[in-house]
Amino acid sequence: MDEIRSWWQVPCIAHFCSLFRSAFALTDFEIEDLEDALMISGGQEESRFLADLHARLLRGLFSKKAEINADNFEPYLSEVLKVRWADDSRLKRKNLLETTSYKDLSILDKVEILHSLCDWRLDCDDVPDHLKSMEADSLRVEPLGRDAENNTYWYFYGTRLYKEYVEKPNKEMKGKGRKKLVKKKKKKFKKKKKVKKHSSSESESPTSRYVFRFL
């Protein structure tokens, strides 16, 4: 359970479903229900709750004639993953359901798929009509605050506090090891310059990454 709670996508999914429950005809649930369902899906049993949630999100991506439910959602999900992931040359992600059934996916894979479904549901043509009746402030998620070290704190779903920080490269390397590393980096940089020009999107340090921790 601690690992599931360390994934920032889980509170994002719960927040999305709470915010758009009425608009997208989603089930009313607490974040603990989602976490428990993910734990169950990692074992021999399959969660009916997760299957129903996938089906409800998928209905918005297909025509109204498609009768998608908890029993038959998997082929529809596979079709969406093929179009959104496998056929998109920019993402270079494979359709996980092409060779594996949903129940055999890892818990993290299921979380990533569910989080992606939430994003894709907002791409649909009916969204502007649903948003007209919603307050703009309710759609905006702001950080709770920042500390002296510029770490950001996010408060999700009324029960989950996460800390976001940038994990910086280790600058304490000394002696020959450090010199060798600098030499290697210079060589690599020279080779890269011959191939292509450094773009603005690559300006961040490759060794820095954003990390979320559940507190």
UniProtKB/TrEMBL annotation:
<keyword id="KW-0539">Nucleus</keyword>
<keyword id="KW-0732">Signal</keyword>
<dbReference type="GO" id="GO:0090537">
    <property type="term" value="C:CERF complex"/>
</dbReference>
<dbReference type="Pfam" id="PF02791">
    <property type="entry name" value="DDT"/>
</dbReference>
<feature type="region of interest" description="Disordered">
    <location>
        <begin position="173"/>
        <end position="208"/>
    </location>
</feature>
<feature type="signal peptide">
    <location>
        <begin position="1"/>
        <end position="25"/>
    </location>
</feature>
<dbReference type="Pfam" id="PF15612">
    <property type="entry name" value="WHIM1"/>
</dbReference>
<dbReference type="InterPro" id="IPR018501">
    <property type="entry name" value="DDT_dom"/>
</dbReference>
<protein>
    <submittedName>
        <fullName>Cat eye syndrome critical region 2</fullName>
    </submittedName>
</protein>
<feature type="compositionally biased region" description="Basic residues">
    <location>
        <begin position="176"/>
        <end position="198"/>
    </location>
</feature>
<dbReference type="InterPro" id="IPR029614">
    <property type="entry name" value="CECR2"/>
</dbReference>
<dbReference type="InterPro" id="IPR028942">
    <property type="entry name" value="WHIM1_dom"/>
</dbReference>
<dbReference type="GO" id="GO:0006338">
    <property type="term" value="P:chromatin remodeling"/>
</dbReference>
